[in-house]
Amino acid sequence: MRIFTIVVKSMLLVMLLVSMAGSLALGQGKCPPYSDGKKYDASPIADAIDANKDGKLTEEEWKKAEAPEPSWNMFMGKENVKKQGYITHQQFLDETPPNGIDTNCDGKITLEEFLATKKWNMGGGGPGGAPGGAPAGGPGGAPPSR
Q1: What's the distance, CA 139 to chain centroid?
Q2: What is the pTM assigned to this prediction?
Q3: Residue 101 clears pLDDT 80, i.e. is over it
Q4: How many other CB atoms are there within 10 angstroms of residue 3's CB atom?
Q5: CA atoms within 13 A on the CB side of 29
Q6: What is the per-residue pLDDT across 118-140, written as a single tens digit (0 to 9) for each?
Q7: Do 15 and 134 contact (CB within 8 A), yes or no?
Q8: Which of 4, 49, 76, 88 is the most buried (most CB within 10 A)?
Q9: In the chain, where are the structural domains located?
């Protein structure tokens, strides 16, 4: 049963990331992906959330930074993260951000850009919903419909 749960969560995460591809067409933002192939840097988000600079993003720090709750829930849906009770910087950086989050396409995803995802439409997750009960559309929810 545990393997089945892991497989289902993995499939839902893939569907979630694919659904975010539509954010480009909806004008939420432009990057990633980057036309010149550059890699994004989400470390400014982790650095801003980690108030005591211990390399661990705790729920208290997450809430104090007002980071999107669906993102926290997505991370806590991962068994190893849930067991430790916090997100390491590396675990945060290993996740692919939703397309369009880097609104100025400078390659650095800031806390402000991350917080802006909370304004995206937080609508339902379609068939089966999103992982961990999070809204569809990735860490901040789905992009707005136009």
Answers
A1: 3
A2: 0.62
A3: yes
A4: 7
A5: 25
A6: 877 544 332 233 333 334 444 44
A7: no
A8: 49
A9: 2-119
